[in-house]
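Sat 14:20. Reprocessing the chain from the morning session after the first attempt stalled halfway. Input below, unchanged.
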Amino acid sequence: MKNPKIQIIFSLFVLLSLIPVAVWAYGDSDSKRRKEPPKEAFEACEGKAAGDTVEFTGRRGETITATCEEQDDQLVAVPEGRPRR
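Finished this time. C-alpha cells:
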C-alpha cells in the first residue's frame, strides 16, 4: 500500500465499519437500563406476597396501583394494564 489515497480510504473504511458495533453495544445496555422497574416498585412489595395489590408513587409523582408479581426471583409491583415481561 504505497498509495496514500488507498491508505486513507482503507483507514476510513475500517473506522466507519466500527460505528455500527459501537452503537449496538451502547444501545443494548441503554435499553436494558430503561426496562428496569423503579426501586419503588420493588419496595412496594416488601413483606407482601405474589398477587397482593399495592400502591406506590411513580417517577412522575403519580399514584400507581399495581399487583406484586415474581420476576427474576424477586417480587415487583406491576402496574395494572401494563404488559408483562
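The mean pLDDT is 83.
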